[in-house]
Amino acid sequence: MSKDLSATPEIPKEDGRPKWDNKFQYILSCIGFAVGLGNVWRFPYLCQIHGGGVGSWVVSILVSLYYNTVLTWVMWYLINSFQEPLPWSVCPLNANRTGFNKECYESTAVNYFWYRKTLNITPDIAENGTLQWWLILCLATCWAIVYLCTIRGIETTGKAIYVTAIFPYLVLTIFLIQGLTLPGATDGLAYLFTPNLNTLKNPRVWLDAATQIFFSLSLAFGGLIAFSSYNLPKNDCEKDAVTVAIVNSMTSLYASIPVFSVLGFKATTAYWDCLDRNIMSIINEFDLPEESIMRQNYTSWISFLNSSHPEKIAGLKLKSCDLQEFLDQSVSGTGLAFIVFTQAIILMPGSQAWAILFFIMLFSLGLSSMFGNIEGVFTPLLELQIVSKSTPKELLSGIICLISFLIALCFTLGSGSYWIDIFDRYAGSVPLLVIAFFEVIGVVYVYKIKRFSKDVKWMTGRKLNLYWQITWRFISPLLLLIVFMAFVALQMLRPPSYAAWNPKYEGFPMKEEKVYPPWVQAICVLLAALPCTCIPLVALFHLIKQKRRSKDTSLVSAEVFSCQGANSNFPHPKE
Fold it and tell me: What membrane topology term does the record carry (predicted)?
């Protein structure tokens, strides 16, 4: 008799695997994995480049509530100190000690400290440079901390997550309170929350919104699947998915408020400095009394002098001071965290304390995300019996962290910053879209939506409604396909390029736009393609394995039948 595949799933027996101490620990681990550096430095950047108005980014929130919830639910089921003065605040002297360092003087002290003192970056990706010992030391320290926190899987990460997931919210709240007291904070918040609905006509906005929310929740990395595998079989996964999706999206908005408060403060300070330089030039040129021209009456004085002494004003070559231009100056990723935000922190009272708090927060965000990444490798190795379950967890975690450390050594080269961008852009984008697409297709069309619906009802106690069935059948695969095609199309419009920090570039301190050499482009293709090839290769492996097993079963059945037939031709000994 054939087995009824639609029957109610059996409750797995106790398998000796560790379990979460409580539901809050599990939810906190998922939130810590999902909420990462992208929520702090990429979401505000995208708001900024698309006009500043978060109203246009309501699109991303709506996409989040649908897009993340749907895909997360599918995925979750598939498994059943610084000293004064600050080193970045003053330019060092040149080699002859006769003046300031030229590279620093032409850019800023913060840029110089980051690109030259910290990264010692090369002007071209083809120039590897040397391994920076201080970066290797920092890298080894970080991986040692990750190892200690993940040494026994969720048994240790479950304890550490209480600190690494909650601490960033505490720091963001402190920055929020401090940021709102800074001059110019209201200008930054007005820039953030003033809607610019015209940007919704730009297809790029929709694409950026979809990709940002998709990657923000860390879908298709495997960490959420690994975390969920330690839950009890009957679990309200719908509620969990909605909770994590909403918290993730709200965190992006919440983090944007202190970020834009501080960026508003920085823009206002830069605007005031611009006005003060112009005022000083005018006072010296026209021999006016000090404080005769103030920021408040600067515009009226300029109008008067332009009409009475236009030639003198033109000769001064005054800078154009516009607060909106300073607010529009956008930067993402490490640029936002280590350059723009650092420049703002320097201007804040008690800058050392704020710097320490800010960078510990960034470290905590990265650490909690790493827990999920490590667990996404650790759990499958054991559960798929790729590694024997008798292997000590401490040894397996150590091997994973050691291999990761060795691979990451390429990021400590002089060209390491360029390689980080490549890994982020290609290894962490296209493969995730492809994996998520096949996950949805696999559940809906291979496993079949009817069987999946019965399983969900058994797990949650609620019947799968029509909305979820329609979205899983059609909308989710279609959205993923559209985002994937749009992403690839945008990449093909122009050759892959990168922004190089080159002090010899004529436009310095602006970065020089360079095209990747052919061999680097080949690596980019490999980084995007290799993870995707695992899907058909594993499918082919299981297909061959299944056919071989069926063939072996048929041969055994035939032999048994032949033996039975042969034995029936011989008389029984008693006969």
Answer: Multi-pass membrane protein
Please choose, from the candidates 543, 496, 542, 452, the residue with its C-alpha nearest in 3D space to the C-alpha of residue 70: 452
pLDDT grade, residue 333 (50/70/90)?
A: low
Does the pLDDT of residue 252 top 60, yes or no? yes
Q: Is 68 annotated as a binding residue?
A: no
What contacts 44, CB < 8 A, 6 or more positions away? 192, 255, 256, 259, 260, 263, 336
pLDDT band at 523 (very low <50, low <70, confident <90, very high): very high
Burial of 50 (0-12, 13-18, 19+ CB in 10 A): buried
**Is position 567 annotated in a ligand binding site?**
no
Q: List all residues 6 or more positions away from 324 whose beta carbon is below 8 Å from its beta carbon.
A: none
Phi, psi of 253 (to 5 degrees): -65, -45
Predicted pLDDT at 125: 94
Q: 14 lies in a domain? A: no
Domain contains 21:
no
* Structure-token pair, residue 340: 């723009």
> Is 507 annotated to bind ligand?
no
Is position 195 within any domain?
no
The total of structural domains in the chain comes to: 1
Q: What is the percent of the chain with per-residue pLDDT over 90, rounded to a whole number?
A: 11
Tell whether residue 128 is among the known ligand binding residues. no
Query: Is residue 145 packed enough to be buried (19+ CB in 10 Å), middle (13-18) or exposed (0-12)?
Result: middle
Q: Domain containing 516: what range?
A: 27-181+258-549
CA–CA dist 134, 147 (Å, integer): 20
198 is in an annotated binding site: no
Predicted confidence (pLDDT) per residue in 538-565, tens digit: 888 888 888 887 776 766 666 656 655 5
Residue 250 identity: M
3-state DSSP call for residue 45?
helix
Indicate if the alpha-carbon torsion angle 334, 336, 342, 343 is positive or negative: positive
Residue 369, annotated as binding a ligand: yes
SS3 245: helix
List, for residues 183-207, the tens digit of each pLDDT value: 999 988 888 888 777 776 777 777 7
- Nearest Cα neighbor of 249 from 222, 212, 196 is 212
Residue 288, domain member (yes or no): yes
34: annotated binding-site residue?
A: yes
- Terminal alpha carbon distance of the chain: 36
Instruction: Judge whether residue 80 has pLDDT over 60.
Output: no
